Amino acid sequence: MKNITKICCIGAGYVGGPTMAVVAKQCPNIKVTIVDLNEARIAAWNDPDVNNIPVYEPGLSEVVAEARGRNLFFSTDVDKAIDEADMIFISVNTPTKTYGAGKGMGADLKWIELCARQIARVSKSDKIVVEKSTLPVRTAEAVKDILHNTGSGVKFQILSNPEFLAEGTAVQDLLAPDRVLIGGDDSIEGKEAIQALVDIYAQWIPLDRILTTNVWSSELSKLVANAFLAQRISSINAISELCEKTEANINEVSRAIGTDSRIGPKFLKASVGFGGSCFQKDILNLVYISRSFGLSEVADYWEQVIIMNDHQKKRFALNIVRSLYNTVSGKKIAFLGWAFKKDTNDTRESAAIYVADELLNEQASIQIYDPKVVEKQIYGDLDYLETRSAELNKSGVTVFNDPYEACNDAHAIAVLTEWDEFKDYDWKRIYDSMLKPAKIFDGRNILDHKLLKEIGFKVYGIGM
Ligand code: UDX
Ligand code: ADP
């Protein structure tokens, strides 16, 4: 197997963009071309001002500034990039199906299949194809099937290399990952392909952190890692509701159990519910696969993680309604945060969307501020739910560029994302501008509740 000198990545999204930018930064000897069908997205990645790239991640603009034009390129010419490359990463979206068999559960592999067919059609030399998108187990089989039946004589090796980066810390996670996972065939050619990818990562990652497995273990491990992480959040969120009924405090419980080294302190923050493009989608995949093998107990076990998360989001919204005397009709509720977590402009599956939807059903008037999410995205997220018309969403929601304006005249404030800047606001000024009694629902337990109470706020945390 020859050395890899040219890489192509199909899909310039939250995974493909940061991952390939870091590969290009760390491997100046490899030419990395990221392609996407979406012309506006590619244009934004090529914007002369690196602050305008379409994905917000701390440190990413600097990485792009360093590598772009040197060995990192963004293009819409998918065919050319495939043809040139020795190795092709598939990093397109794999959302939950919204139609037909597996609707609401299984992954929609339409875009993956299109990529495979395009690679099959364009390739004139042997290639290694790497699955980067999160895929249900045994997707590689479908990709293999398409690529091995082209009749062109070109040989393909298929690897699974799931991404474990978390948004908001992507650059750090990519530079110093806990581990890199590479799954491939046990054949000689398969092992050579695995080695080619290991050699790339080994340029900056210690070898003992690069794990190799068969393709199926690699695909399944990605789903299982996310299911375990999400399960911890649903577990602590379940206990948060119990805390609210008793004198227990969820922060104290988290600390008390997290110091047990067998449990560990991470991912025990009670919240309004987890969001993001991975957790729900991956668990639904796990549930769908289990059910399709007739494993109903396994499926039910994991589905409960999602049920608990939906409950947590709904409960948060209903708490607001209940404490505003059972009606929010016509009342102004300020939202601080719309992204699914801090330090990202990604809003996929954000708890904020579902909390807003519940409150709009109650005819609330919502005033939103998020440091990185643009107005168009917020309306798009609500319209996507198809709960009501776009006009009604527009009339029920106003988006602000200034947090103080968003909170002005509000009956209540809800904190939906844990952005650091929220902690440092002039809370006295906000209190003075609100209707009384002024209420704060801290869905992330990040504010200084003692101080807020001293100012005069009525404060509602999660699990306390
Ligand atoms: C996750 C996995 O962490 C990552 O390894 C995988 O590659 C993709 O899915 P991501 O979705 O980007 O990453 O963010 P993550 O930090 O895992 O947070 C997911 C959600 O859980 C967020 O909404 C976050 O606010 C919430 N969360 C996280 C909590 O509510 N409590 C916690 O203790 C931790
Ligand atoms: P992720 O979080 O997995 O990166 P995104 O939705 O952010 O998901 O990014 C996926 C990208 O893949 C999108 O920009 C989309 O336009 C692109 N894409 C999907 N299908 C194709 C295709 N066949 N060829 C090129 N790009 C594609």
UniProtKB/TrEMBL annotation:
Repressor is among the record's keywords: no
Q: What is this protein called?
A: UDP-glucose 6-dehydrogenase
GO annotation terms (biological process) = glycosaminoglycan biosynthetic process; UDP-glucuronate biosynthetic process
- Residues binding NAD(+) are 11-16, 36, 41, 92-96, 133-134, 167, 278-281, 348
Q: Give the pathway listed in the UniProt entry for this protein.
A: Nucleotide-sugar biosynthesis; UDP-alpha-D-glucuronate biosynthesis; UDP-alpha-D-glucuronate from UDP-alpha-D-glucose: step 1/1
* Functional note: Catalyzes the conversion of UDP-glucose into UDP-glucuronate, one of the precursors of teichuronic acid.
List residues of the UDP-glucose/GDP-mannose dehydrogenase C-terminal domain.
Answer: 334-449
Q: Which SMART domains match?
A: UDPG_MGDP_dh_C (SM00984)
Q: Does the keyword NAD apply?
A: yes
Q: Known EC number(s)?
A: 1.1.1.22
What is its EC class?
Answer: oxidoreductase
Catalyzed reactions per annotation: UDP-alpha-D-glucose + 2 NAD(+) + H2O = UDP-alpha-D-glucuronate + 2 NADH + 3 H(+)
Q: Which organism is it from?
A: Pedobacter kyonggii
Q: Which GO terms describe its molecular function?
A: NAD binding; UDP-glucose 6-dehydrogenase activity
Q: Which UniProt keywords apply?
A: NAD, Oxidoreductase
- Active-site annotation: C278 (nucleophile)
